[in-house]
Design brief:
globular; hydrolase activity; AB_hydrolase_sf; alpha/beta
Length: 276
């Protein structure tokens, strides 16, 4: 494993669970590496998770504003990918996981993408779904444009939280402060997710992704997510899609057992060397 001190800004890394498989996990915006505990418990004995806090999240330092935040998060993930591993990402973390598979397919044994917010894919196949998302997100984006960061964090949490957990005012002060701290990264990653300067959504952009892939979404999530997952699936050759009833965008946290069950299927498609 690369020394995280070699990065421009070292990040916090934790290990969760036990097992022969090594799994690299990339969390969503406004979360932290600890949100993978439920999945680690569900997979305990099968997989050992390596998870890190993105910049401006958890125990990692605030992003210094240099470079592109998706590129910076990708560099962190690449530093932790020192042998073939199973890779999972959620939401923005799933976009980083997909780029990881494009950059180093030799080191990604299997790929699990949960609710990837790579809007560039849906812009090509279902622009109306993106337009609906933009309309629904307008209160959040307008609040941030006015400099109302706390209001923006509250509205973003309401939109993507799917009604899971307590209302904003009932959240612990530390939880609200953590979300407010991370919310500037949402507009900062817009170019990467919509304009796709990395070319992942371009023709041939996913040609290197030949490992088994699992695409998961919640049945109750925003319609733009199914447009994105369908568009990504159409580009891949070894792909499973799973929609979890009763789940929304936060399904890795709310439904870790369902995620673990689906991942066992992709693990079977990507056996460890020497496995019977």
């Amino acid at each position: 494993m690369k020394d995280m001190n070699d990065l421009p800004q070292p990040v916090f890394v934790r290990e969760l669970g036990t097992g022969d498989r090594r799994l690299l996990a990339v969390h969503c915006t406004l979360a932290h590496s600890g949100v993978w505990r439920g999945l680690a418990q569900a997979l305990d004995g099968q997989a050992r998770l390596t998870a890190f806090d993105m910049l401006s999240h958890g125990r990692s330092p605030d992003w210094d504003g240099q470079g592109d935040i998706q590129d910076r998060t990708l560099d962190t993930a690449l530093g932790l990918l020192d042998e073939p591993m199973d890779v999972i990402g959620h939401s923005f973390g799933a976009t980083v996981a997909l780029r990881l598979a494009v950059a180093r397919p030799d080191l990604v044994r299997s790929l699990t993408l949960i609710e990837p917010v790579y809007f560039a894919f849906a812009l090509q196949s279902a622009p109306e779904a993106v337009a609906r998302h933009e309309a629904d997100a307008a209160p959040f984006t307008e609040a941030l444009a006015r400099g109302e960061v706390a209001t923006g964090a509250r509205l973003f949490n309401r939109m993507w939280g799917g009604g899971v957990g307590p209302r904003w005012d009932a959240l612990p002060e530390a939880a609200r402060a953590s979300m407010i701290r991370g919310i500037p990264l949402v507009p900062a990653c817009r170019q990467a997710l919509y304009d796709d300067p990395a070319g992942v959504a371009a023709p041939g952009g996913l040609d290197a992704v030949t490992m088994p892939v699992l695409l998961m979404r919640g049945c109750d999530s925003h319609p733009v997510i199914s447009a994105i997952t369908d568009a990504i699936a159409a580009r891949l050759t070894r792909v499973r899609q799973e929609a979890v009833p009763g789940a929304g965008h936060m399904l890795p946290i709310t439904h870790p057992e369902a995620v673990a069950a689906a991942m066992r299927g992709v693990f079977a498609d990507a056996p460890l060397p020497g496995a019977a």
